[in-house]
Design a protein that fits this description.
CATH superfamily: Phosphoenolpyruvate-binding domains
Number of helices: 12
CATH topology: TIM Barrel
Order of helices and strands: HEEHEHHEHEHEHEHEHEHHH
CATH architecture: Alpha-Beta Barrel
Number of strands: 9
Mean pLDDT: 97
Low-confidence stretches: none
Strand content: 5-15%
Number of domains: 1
Strand order of the largest sheet: 1-9-8-7-6-5-4-3-2
CATH class: Alpha Beta
Distance between the termini: 13 Å
Length: 264
C-alpha cells in the first residue's frame, strides 16, 4: 500500500461513526508486534521514542532520529503510522513545518502537535505550517495535563483553544486526561465534526462507552512503553540480585519472533 493509500485509510478511521484504538510504539520492533496483535493503525509515543534513544521527553530528541525511526517502522508495518511530534521540535513554526515535512516524506501520515505551556497562537502557527504537508494533524490541548488553569475553568479553556486550532486547520483534537463522561460529551459536541481523541488512563471508561460519549479515538500514549520498562526493571533487579532465570522465562514471548520480522 502506498503512502497516499495509508493517508486515505487513516482519515477514514476517524470518520463519524468510527472509533480508532491507537496503540503507541517506540521502535520498529514494537510497532511490528503491535501490528501483529491486530492494530489497524499505529502511533509513536514521543516520550517512549525519546527514552528508547536515551533522551528525555520534551522536544529534546533530534528530529533526524525521528525521521530514521519513521523509516524503520514503515519498513516493517503495513498499516498507517502517526507520529507524536511533541511541539514539532522547535519554537519556530517554519522549522516545525520543515521537520513535519521530513516526517511525511519518511512515511508518516499523521502527527500530534501539542500546545503545552506555550501560547495557543504559537500552536496555531505550527498547525498552519503542518498543513503544508499531507498530514492528519491532531492538535493536543494540554489544559488538563499541564493544569494550565484552575479546574473549574478547564473545559471553557479547552473549548476556546480547540476552536482556535480548528480555525487554524487541524484535523482532530486530543485532550489528555479528559475522562469525565459529561465533559467528553461537551467537548466532542463542540468540536464536531472533528474527532475527539482521549488518552488511556486508570479507571477510564471502556472503548464502547467512550464511543457512546462521542469520543472517536483512544491512544495508549506512553503506557505500553512504561509497562515494558517496569517489567524489565523488575526482572533485571531480580536477576541481578539472585540470578533468577525462572522469573525471566515466565514472561518470555515464545512465538517465533524471527519469523514475525522476516515476514516483513
Amino acid at each position: 500500500m502506498t503512502r497516499d493509500e495509508h493517508a486515505a485509510t487513516f482519515r477514514r478511521l476517524h470518520a463519524p461513526g468510527e472509533f480508532l484504538i491507537l496503540p503507541n510504539a517506540w521502535d520498529a520492533g514494537s510497532a511490528r508486534i503491535i501490528e501483529s496483535c491486530g492494530a489497524t493503525a499505529i502511533a509513536t509515543s514521543s516520550a517512549a521514542l525519546a527514552w528508547a534513544h536515551g533522551y528525555p521527553d520534551g522536544d529534546a530528541l533530534p528530529p533526524r532520529l525521528v525521521v530514521r525511526t519513521i523509516e524503520e517502522i514503515v519498513r516493517v508495518i503495513g498499516v498507517p503510522l502517526s507520529v507524536d511530534s511533541e511541539g514539532g521540535y522547535s519554537s519556530d513554526p517554519t522549522i516545525v513545518g520543515q521537520n513535519l515535512a521530513d516526517f511525511a516524506s519518511a512515511g508518516a501520515v499523521g502527527i500530534n502537535l501539542e500546545d503545552g505551556e506555550a501560547s495557543p497562537e504559537l500552536l496555531c502557527a505550527k498547525i498552519a505550517e503542518a498543513k503544508r504537508s499531507d498530514l492528519f494533524v491532531n492538535a493536543r490541548v494540554d489544559v488538563l495535563l499541564k493544569k494550565l488553569v484552575p479546574r473549574e475553568r478547564a473545559i471553557e479553556e479547552i473549548l476556546g483553544r480547540a476552536a482556535r486550532y480548528r480555525e487554524a486547520g487541524c484535523d482532530g483534537i486530543f485532550v489528555p486526561m479528559l475522562a469525565d463522561p459529561e465533559e467528553i460529551r461537551t467537548v466532542s459536541r463542540a468540536i464536531d465534526p472533528l474527532p475527539l481523541n482521549v488518552l488511556a488512563t486508570p479507571g477510564l471508561a471502556t472503548a464502547a462507552e467512550l464511543r457512546s460519549f462521542g469520543a472517536r479515538r483512544l491512544s495508549a500514549g506512553a503506557s505500553l512503553a512504561r509497562a515494558a520498562i517496569g517489567l524489565t526493571k523488575q526482572l533485571a533487579t531480580g536477576f541481578l540480585a539472585a540470578g533468577n532465570s525462572d522469573a525471566i522465562y515466565e514472561h518470555a514471548d515464545r512465538t517465533d519472533l524471527n519469523k514475525l520480522y522476516a515476514d516483513k
